Automatic annotation (TrEMBL):
Coiled-coil segments: none
Keyword list, A-Z: Membrane, Transmembrane, Transmembrane helix, Transport
Lineage: Bacteria, Bacillati, Bacillota, Bacilli, Bacillales
GO CC, one annotated term: plasma membrane
Membrane topology: Multi-pass membrane protein
Gene this chain is encoded by: opuB
Name used for this protein in its record: Choline ABC transporter permease
Organism encoding this protein: Paenibacillus nasutitermitis
Length: 227
């Protein structure tokens, strides 16, 4: 009977607060998408640059810096950014952007380094210039690696975005924090379950793109070999 009562109570809660829940989900997606987009725009070109420039000290410096960002606790990083950027979405997006750099950078770098040099040499012999080799050979072959990094990072960022509520950025974390503050389990359950669902859906989506890119790349390579 208590379970049944909670079920009906929860349905009533969803009917009453669905607009607030949708707003929180929208804010969560905006923060996640913005931080991931910034991470991709910075880390992918940087990974390509490092794969083409074998300067050891530069590799060490960049990977050390991005690794340091990963080791800073989320709450500590947010606290550091508040005096610099205030509260709200801006510091939350910037903090999550810093967390997104290392996995995307590492996978991009490894993806480009995994391309067979003999294939690049053959393309050079066929008259491909540097841009053509990058766009038509290296990028397609590296794309599954890059997508793998984006996939894992997105799942993590969706989870970490719940902490953005602590600095007034909104999102699903606001439901959780509010639920804890007023001891309302419906808010806590809704915030946590929604974040889990978003992470699960993102993993499915990027996983499908990753598999599709791998199959397409393998078919392209097979056709080139057959020729």
């Amino acid at each position: 009977m208590p379970k049944s009562n909670f079920f009906y109570t929860y349905l009533e809660f969803l009917q009453e607060r669905y607009l607030d829940i949708l707003t929180a989900i929208q804010q969560h997606l905006v923060i996640t998408a913005a931080s991931m987009l910034l991470g991709i725009l910075v880390a992918v070109p940087l990974g390509i640059f490092l794969s083409k420039n074998k300067i050891k000290w530069l590799h060490t410096l960049i990977f050390t810096i991005t690794n340091i960002f990963q080791t800073i606790p989320s709450l500590a990083l947010l606290a550091i950014l508040i005096p610099l950027m205030g509260i709200g979405m801006k510091p939350a997006i910037f903090a999550l952007f810093l967390y997104s750099l290392l996995p995307i950078l590492r996978n991009t770098y490894e993806g480009f380094n995994s391309v067979d040099p003999a294939m690049l040499e053959s393309a050079r012999g066929m008259g491909f210039n540097a841009t053509q080799r990058l766009l038509q050979i290296q990028l397609p072959l590296s794309f599954p690696y890059i997508m793998s990094g984006i996939r894992v990072t997105t799942v993590y960022i969706i989870s970490w975005t719940t902490l953005a509520a602590l600095i007034g950025a909104g999102g699903l974390g606001e439901l959780i924090v509010s639920g804890i503050g007023v001891n309302k389990k419906e808010l806590i359950i809704t915030g946590a379950a929604s974040a889990i669902l978003l992470a699960f859906l993102a993993d499915l989506l990027f996983g499908a793109i990753e598999r599709w890119s791998s199959i397409k790349t393998n078919i392209k390579i097979k056709l080139q070999v057959d020729k």
